[in-house]
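Most newcomers find our protein records easier to grasp once they have seen one. A learned vocabulary of local backbone shapes supplies the integers on the structure line. Here is such a record, shown just as it appears in the course material:
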Amino acid sequence: MPELPEVETIVRALQQGGREGPPVLGRRLLAADLLWDRTLAQPSAAEFISRIPGQVVEGVSRRGKYIVIKLSQDVLLVHLGMSGDLRVKALQNEQAEPFPLQSHGRLVLTFADGLRLVFTDPRKFGRVWLVADPQPVLDGLGPEPLDPGFSAAQFHTKLQTHHRSLKPLLLDQTFLAGLGNIYTDEALHMAGLHPTRQADELDILQAQKLLQAIRQVLEEGIRRNGASIDWVYRGGSFQNSFHVYQRTGKPCLICGTPIERLVVGQRGTHFCPVCQPSGK
């Protein structure tokens, strides 16, 4: 699943250009083609198609794993689900010949200049909202881990209110927004914490170290344009820096002990038994 760094990479490409496409800021929408109705969470397909034309892209940002596209009248929210991607497709040539859509296309937004914003989603878990107010959709999200105003003391206080294993708690988007399997495993390894450690057992120094590790792996992931680990998301290089994720049986890069895998909260979890001893 695309996590915070992958989503942030897409957002920056839409803002500034990148990933083989130009930026979308300031462009006026001409039409919408909904290729799979269940991609749209809100409103109805007919209303969506009628409201899109004429709106101008005024801003693109991120909240957790959501892409937030501010239009002149509405806000377009995109959640990539397990396998979604969002790319700007340029015309093939100056004569504006039609070009083939990438397979698994679910939604296509066409701009007045002929560019297209294409949402692909092979596994069909992604969703799109067109709303006047995004808050009802986003309100349940937890703090942004990269928000400089979110302190270690606040993080420790939140941890103290949950008697849950760290791995599933960090994956809970109502607790902290943006983390997924990859960056949670990497952050727990960097912090030296076992994934089954109970959150309310951490002292302030451990909480501070964990928050620092979360930020460090997320920032490195963003710097490397995310991680490309299968056919879902391409273009990143953070997979070349994994310490534990998908390295079962390989030596820990810190101590040399073979990386182990267990299932925590129904999610495959990778850790070093020496660097992250049970109960610590």
User: Anything to note?
Assistant: The longest helix spans residues 204-223. Confidence is low (pLDDT under 50) at residues 93-100. The chain has two domains: 4-138, 152-271.
